[in-house]
């Protein structure tokens, strides 16, 4: 994974920080009258939704993560799990319904969506 400087963080970047995956929601660059400049970053945890405000100096290194996107077709739901078929390999995968949150009612049978993965773990899904 590429490491970036603290002043290179932009909204939407996914960072591996303190053992978790965080998406940068807001980034503000601050140059105080005394001391070095820093980036004030508001982040949201991709796994549990916690929020965190963190300061990164220009010299701080942060690991930027890239998620893999896969097209998947919705098959059915059972016991709070959604079953999909990978459009490329035709393998069936199971994804927890809570990834969709309030968007779950809009998911229809046979719909193809994009699912974002990090090391074979589904983190986010985007409806068309």
Tell me about this structure.
- It is elongated and about 60 Å long.
- The protein is an all-beta fold and 128 residues long.
- The protein has a 6-stranded antiparallel beta sheet with strand order 1-6-2-3-4-5, with no helix packed on it. Strands 9-8-7-10-11 form a 5-stranded antiparallel beta sheet, with no helix packed on it.
- It starts with a strand and ends with a strand.
- The chain has 2 domains: 3-65, SH3 type barrels (Roll), CATH 2.30.30; 68-126, Nucleic acid-binding proteins (OB fold (Dihydrolipoamide Acetyltransferase, E2P)).
- The protein contains no helices and 11 strands.
CATH topology of the largest domain: SH3 type barrels
Q: Give me the Rg, rounded.
A: 18 Å
Overall form: elongated
Taking the sheet with the most strands, its summary is: 6 strands, antiparallel
Compute the number of strand runs. 11
**CATH architecture annotation of the largest domain:** Roll
What topology, given as strand order, has the largest sheet? 1-6-2-3-4-5
Summed over residues and divided by their number, the pLDDT gives a mean of: 90
How many structural domains in the coordinates?
2
- Low-pLDDT parts are none
Structural class: mainly beta
For the record, what CATH class of the largest domain applies?
A: Mainly Beta
Defining traits:
2 domains; single chain; OB fold (Dihydrolipoamide Acetyltransferase, E2P); 128 residues; 57% strand; SH3 type barrels; six-stranded antiparallel sheet; mainly beta; five-stranded antiparallel sheet; 0% helix
């Amino acid at each position: 994974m590429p490491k970036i400087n603290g002043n290179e963080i932009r909204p939407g970047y996914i960072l591996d920080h303190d053992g978790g995956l965080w998406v940068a929601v807001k980034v503000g660059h601050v140059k105080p009258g005394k001391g070095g400049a820093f980036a004030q970053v508001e982040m949201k945890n991709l796994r549990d939704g916690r929020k965190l405000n963190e300061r990164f100096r220009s010299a701080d290194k942060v690991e930027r993560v890239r998620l893999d996107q896969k097209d998947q077709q919705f098959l059915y739901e059972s016991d709070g799990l959604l079953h999909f078929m990978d459009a490329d390999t035709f393998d069936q995968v199971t994804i927890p319904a809570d990834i969709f949150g309030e968007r779950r009612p809009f998911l229809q049978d046979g719909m193809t969506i994009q699912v974002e993965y990090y090391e074979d773990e589904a983190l986010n899904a985007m409806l068309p």
